[in-house]
Design a protein that fits this description.
This protein is α+β, with helices and mostly antiparallel strands. The protein is built from eight helices and 15 strands.
Length: 301
């Protein structure tokens, strides 16, 4: 069995991986390490290892690295796709929470030896790029519009000097105070919503934004997107709701909508950006669909 590891080259935990994790894997398996050198390099590397018929690709990084590896695999012309695995090294690791993946070397070795997998869903976004060209982008955890893309932009500026939790909280609060809710129309087969959205998120996993559980009931292999749409609320109530959501509680309020669907269309007269797994991917109009059990994912013990 040939295993490729795609390591986030700018991860603060890179040395831990190189000195503790990688040597342990080398002793047990036939592994080849690829390290990212620039933004989006993981996409290119994942395409390469898919074309070269590796059996298992392990994303060593956070949600962004996992997203890029996923897109590289699925955008490869080789239909014989490798199994996908994850060793969490990011600041948020939201999808790792969903699948119970840990940064334990022993657990990764055990999971890789057993090589059992689960077929899980993948979201696909068809939207518009900055230049107006159509974009097809995959996500494994969640994508969002509204505050989400702005939080991503601010997070990149704050993350270098602050820890993960404080960086996320500060970025969310500053964005809340400066963001103007945007008018969006969401049309699914089963329901429709239109109004000014503070956040509109569509999830396969249970949380995003460092443990914000927008979809605590999500199942990663049920063929459904879990939608979370929030209108504007006052800051004090927002802070209360934020703590409840972090505690995996659903909010009961007419301004907050929880729905499921397999497909949703998003339109707006305003310029609305979309992010997925912490990266800006494009702009509305967009269609988001769930691809049922599209990828084989290494089960984590």
């Amino acid at each position: 069995m040939r295993i490729a590891i795609i390591l986030n080259g700018i991860s603060k935990k890179k040395q831990f991986f190189l000195t503790k994790v990688y040597p342990a894997l080398q002793r047990e398996f036939n592994v080849t390490l690829f390290e990212t050198l620039y933004t989006s390099h993981a996409i290119q590397l994942a395409k390469q290892v898919t074309d070269e018929l590796f059996d298992l690709v392990i994303a060593a990084g956070g949600d962004g690295t996992l997203n890029q590896v996923l897109n590289g695999i699925l955008h490869s012309e080789n239909i014989s796709r490798p199994m996908l695995g994850l060793f969490p090294l990011g600041s948020a690791n939201d999808f790792a929470r969903t699948i119970n993946a840990s940064s334990s070397v022993d657990r990764l070795i055990q999971s890789t030896k057993e090589l059992s997998f689960q077929a899980i869903d993948v979201g696909q976004v068809n939207c518009i790029g900055k230049n107006g060209n159509p974009i097809a982008h995959f996500f494994i955890n969640a994508c969002s519009l509204g505050m989400g893309p702005l939080v991503v932009e601010r997070l990149e500026r704050n993350r270098k000097s602050l820890g993960a939790s404080l960086s996320y909280l500060l970025s969310i609060l500053v964005t809340f105070l400066t963001h103007k809710p945007q008018y969006v129309i969401c049309t699914a087969d089963e329901w429709q919503w239109k109004g000014k959205a503070r956040v509109a998120a569509f999830a396969n996993g249970t949380s995003f934004g460092n443990g914000i559980y927008i979809a605590p009931d999500a199942v990663i292999a049920d063929g459904l997107l879990n939608s979370f749409i929030a209108e504007d609320v006052a800051l004090p109530r927002f802070l209360v709701y934020l703590q409840s959501i972090k505690a995996k509680k659903k909010i009961v309020n007419k301004k907050i909508l929880y729905k499921t669907t397999a497909r949703v269309e998003l339109t707006s007269v305003e310029i609305c950006a979309l992010e997925a797994e912490g990266e800006i991917i494009g702009y509305l109009p967009a269609t988001i669909v769930i691809k049922n059990q599209l990828i084989r994912f290494l089960k984590h013990k």
